[in-house]
Amino acid sequence: GENVEQHPSTLSVQEGDSAVIKCTYSDSASNYFPWYKQELGKRPQLIIDIRSNVGEKKDQRIAVTLNKTAKHFSLHITETQPEDSAVYFCAASLETSGSRLTFGEGTQLTVNP
Amino acid sequence: GAVVSQHPSWVICKSGTSVKIECRSLDFQATTMFWYRQFPKQSLMLMATSNEGSKATYEQGVEKDKFLINHASLTLSTLTVTSAHPEDSSFYICSARPPFGGINYGYTFGSGTRLTVV
Predict the structure, then answer these.
(1) Which of A24, A40, B14, B21 could pair with A72 in a Cys bridge, judged by C-beta atoms 3.0 to 4.6 Å apart?
(2) Nearest CA-CA partner of B30 in B45, B46, B47, B51
(3) CB distance A41–B106 less than 8 Å?
(4) Residues B6-23: what's their mean pLDDT?
(5) Residue A97 is nearest to which of B46, B91, B99, comparing CB atoms?
């Protein structure tokens, strides 16, 4: 089955700096890669996703890059703000409705004012 | 957008009792529902995949007789934790994905259930 590894497990940045979280996946058939932000005790919230036919996607301060050959994808947050502090999870799956989503271990991001 | 409603949001039960958690897809038909468990400071771990009208598929190490899953309709899946013990205390969350057919919907999550077994 799919295995997703995520680094770093914790990340502390100063407000305004950029944050980068990296993930690798094992199943070359995976073609859907979402990123989630989860606040304590709440459901994961989708912040951005990318499909394997695209190498990069951007939404305001958030961007995701995908390298299919190397089987890794990264989340980039620019101009970080204290409200960006949360746990971020990467995930991977096949692009079919019945496919499971496999999560990385998570990254605790802390943005210091 | 696609919404999954999960109840209860939190429950405290005594050791040895059973607890039922419900997940309903409100505006789409979910032929498949995924059940995750999340311990503090850990990731979401898939417990089982429930399929409407058929038996659930359990992940390795998950006791199917302890975590009963029923997916009797296209909009409702339930997880029953039987004979709960303190080590079952966790955050349980369901997820579904609207049918893939030209609309790029991602996975939709329920709001989660915080189970505390005392």
Answers:
(1) A24
(2) B51
(3) no
(4) 97
(5) B99
